[in-house]
Structure formats: structure tokens, C-alpha cells
């Protein structure tokens, strides 16, 4: 009888499909003590009577939120391994949902990327292939540094907000007021390169960290190269932004689109469209919340000047990188 598909390495971690549970001799030989089921199908509870069992009820569809379960599934897997037994993670086919959960665990355990973890799992089970939505969630999980809790992460909260916007957009509605995320109320303390001020009254309306990049439509001469997201260029007539708290009175009215007024002088400074807006460069931004360059002045931020002055001579700002620990697998 063939053995179970064991993730390569020292861990007693296995991956499979639903029918793996009927291979009782193989399960006993592997000393399986914990079983993680990642599927929504009705289950025969008798299959799990000898094991500690956890169920994550999700479908194998791209818009399913599997990300919110990664911290709990990681803890369950670690608990089983710490107890000295084997852990089986399964879904219906042992291809997408179960693979995503095992990848999330390996990312947290070994500080590796989703693609590295997937390549490692495929050494044991070549059919593993999380759907595109799950892979995107794993990428986000990696950018969040695989935290013990995702709910408190601004990146996760923003992701949930964008999901709500997309759902509302699909229904032809504006998002519910309580589900709109006003970014400046959640993310603070970041340095800004420049400020956007009302040209009439000089009131600061936004700073550069709240700008949203977009992909311009390529011209005939550069269609051979894939466009990349970019900050507003000279060809863009608008600055696209995250929702900011001064926009609250307008955005919470439940309208699909409308105008934005400066809260100080009430000059029309921009517009919004929850269903999306096309920039003058040809790129689309969803949702489209914008300030018109003709009504706004771009002014270098004083905070960025202070940051430059306080930086020690010769110091170079670097971002932490996720090191590869494949040798520990």
C-alpha cells in the first residue's frame, strides 16, 4: 500500500484528499493524531473519531476568505506536531484548499515565500495548486509577515474593505457607510513626500502616502512591454486617493458617484465613483476617488524635510526582507 503524501522534511505533516481518510492502515502507520479538514461538504463524523479534528468550511473559489483562517490552522497544525503525532491536512482533492493551508504554515514556520512553499509541497504531491484567489491571499499573508492574528493588521483590514467595495460594485450599489475604510483613521505616522492643498484656501487635503497608483493604457510604441503601476504622471489629470476622513459626509450618503468639496472653502476639488473611474492616461481605478490637478497644488511636505535632516550622515534607508530558510525544510 502506498504511503501518505508527506511534506518533505522532518515534520510529520501530510496532505491529501477526502479519500485519504479511508486509508486507515496508512493513517495508523503515520501515527496521525490531528486532522484538518478544509472543505464545506457534509462529512461522515465517524471518519474522525480517533483524531483531534478541526474543520474550516470554505469552498474552492477565488473570492472565498481563507486568509482569515490561517492563524488558527497554523496553531492547530503546530499543536499536533508538538504533541509528537502526525498531522493530516485535507480538502476534497488535496489540491487547492489543503495546499493553501500547508503553504501558510510553512511560510510562518520557515519564513519563506508562497512560491517556495508550493514548490516544496509539490515534491510530495505534484497536483497541489491553490486557486489564484488563495495564492493572492498567501502573497498578502507574506507581506504581513505571517502574523499570529490578521484581524488587527491594516493590510488585512484594507483587503477586506476592497472586497466589500467590489461586492457592492457588482451589485450596482455604493458600499454601506460603516464598511467604508477611511485610511487616515487607520494608518498614521508615515512620512509623506508631498502634500496636496486646495489651490483656493490652501487647506491640506491629502498627503502622498494616500495616493493610489494605477496602470496607464500603453501607447502603440510600448505595447510590447507589460505596463506597471505608477504614481500620477504629467499625463494624469487627477490624483487618485484612498477615502479620507474629510470626505466622510459625502461618501457616506450611499450615492454611486458625486463631487468632492474642500471642507474649508467648499470649492469643488474632485469627484468619486464607486464603480470606478478612468484617468486621462487611460488607466482605470476602482473605486475612483480623485482630486483634480487643476484645483490642487502639490507642495513638498515639511515632515519629509525633517526626516531628511534627522537621518544620520551616510545612512541608507532599507526595508526588511523576508529571508529564505529553505535549507531548514
UniProtKB/TrEMBL annotation:
Entry's Gene Ontology cellular component terms: nucleus
Residues annotated as domain Tyrosine-protein phosphatase: 5-147
Residue ranges occupied by any Tyrosine specific protein phosphatases domain in the UniProt entry: 68-125
Listed InterPro entries: Dual-sp_phosphatase_cat-dom, DUSP12, Prot-tyrosine_phosphatase-like, Tyr_Pase_AS, Tyr_Pase_dom, TYR_PHOSPHATASE_DUAL_dom
Region (Disordered): 304-329
Enzyme class: hydrolase
Active-site residues from the entry: 91
GO MF: protein tyrosine phosphatase activity; protein tyrosine/serine/threonine phosphatase activity
Keywords: Hydrolase, Protein phosphatase
EC number: 3.1.3.48
PANTHER family: DUAL SPECIFICITY PROTEIN PHOSPHATASE 12, DUAL SPECIFICITY PROTEIN PHOSPHATASE 12 FAMILY MEMBER
Family statement: Belongs to the protein-tyrosine phosphatase family. Non-receptor class dual specificity subfamily.
Protein name (record): protein-tyrosine-phosphatase
Organism: Glonium stellatum
Amino acid at each position: 500500500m502506498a504511503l501518505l503524501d508527506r511534506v518533505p522534511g522532518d515534520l510529520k505533516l501530510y496532505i491529501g484528499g477526502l479519500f485519504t481518510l479511508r486509508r486507515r492502515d496508512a493513517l495508523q502507520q503515520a501515527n496521525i493524531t490531528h486532522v484538518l479538514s478544509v472543505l464545506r461538504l457534509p462529512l461522515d463524523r465517524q471518519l474522525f473519531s480517533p483524531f483531534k479534528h478541526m474543520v474550516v468550511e470554505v469552498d474552492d473559489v477565488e473570492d472565498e476568505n481563507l486568509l482569515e483562517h490561517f492563524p488558527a490552522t497554523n496553531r492547530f497544525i503546530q499543536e499536533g506536531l508538538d504533541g509528537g503525532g502526525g498531522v493530516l491536512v485535507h480538502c476534497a482533492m488535496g489540491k487547492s484548499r489543503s495546499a493553501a493551508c500547508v503553504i501558510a504554515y510553512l511560510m510562518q514556520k520557515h519564513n519563506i515565500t508562497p512560491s517556495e512553499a508550493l514548490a516544496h509541497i509539490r515534491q510530495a504531491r505534484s497536483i497541489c495548486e491553490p486557486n489564484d484567489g488563495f495564492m493572492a491571499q498567501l502573497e498578502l499573508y507574506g507581506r504581513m509577515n505571517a502574523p499570529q492574528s490578521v484581524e488587527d493588521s491594516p493590510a488585512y483590514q484594507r483587503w477586506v474593505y476592497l472586497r466589500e467595495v467590489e461586492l457592492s460594485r457588482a451589485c450596482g450599489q455604493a458600499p454601506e457607510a460603516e464598511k467604508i475604510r477611511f485610511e487616515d483613521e487607520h494608518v498614521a505616522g508615515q512620512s509623506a513626500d508631498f502634500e496636496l492643498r486646495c489651490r483656493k484656501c490652501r487647506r491640506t487635503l491629502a498627503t502622498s502616502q494616500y495616493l493610489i497608483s494605477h496602470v496607464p493604457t500603453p501607447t502603440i510604441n510600448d505595447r510590447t512591454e507589460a505596463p506597471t503601476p505608477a504614481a500620477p504622471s504629467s499625463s494624469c489629470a487627477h490624483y487618485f486617493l484612498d477615502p479620507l476622513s474629510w470626505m466622510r459626509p459625502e461618501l457616506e450618503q450611499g450615492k454611486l458617484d458625486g463631487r468632492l468639496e474642500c471642507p474649508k472653502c467648499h470649492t469643488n476639488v474632485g469627484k468619486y465613483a464607486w464603480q470606478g473611474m478612468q484617468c486621462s492616461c487611460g488607466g482605470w481605478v476602482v473605486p475612483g476617488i480623485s482630486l483634480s490637478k487643476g484645483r490642487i497644488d502639490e507642495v513638498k511636505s515639511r515632515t519629509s524635510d525633517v526626516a531628511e535632516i534627522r537621518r544620520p550622515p551616510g545612512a541608507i534607508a532599507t526595508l526588511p526582507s523576508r529571508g529564505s530558510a529553505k535549507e531548514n525544510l
